[in-house]
Amino acid sequence: MVDNHGPRRARGSLEAQVMGVLWAAQGPMTASAVQTALDDGLAHNTVQTILTRLHEKKRLRRERVGRAHAYWPVLDAVAAAAARMQAALGERRDRTAVLQQFAASLADEDADLLHELLSFTRCQRRA
After folding, report:
1. What is the dihedral of CA 55, 60, 66, 67, to 10 degrees?
2. CATH topology of domain 13-73
């Protein structure tokens, strides 16, 4: 059997592309506007399905605009990345091992920055 659709995309890659478009946008976007911005030949129905799923996952808000919906992210890109990191940490039993591995994988500059941020956050919590 021949696959006429080309190579499969990585799981979640379309959602990530759509989120990237919405984070870069100046405001809410319709499925048609997202489809145009993606510029990779996706069908309108595919884009609409992705937007609907992201809305169901509570990652997007939407508002009726005429016969369509306009969508925008619940969290900005930075807050979403932090939430993914927190979720990944929460999924593991041995948080110490996960944090240790993460810390060991950081470049020196990032480790220094993280240390400064942790110290600052700790001071803020005590104040």
Report:
1. -20
2. Arc Repressor Mutant, subunit A (1.10.10)
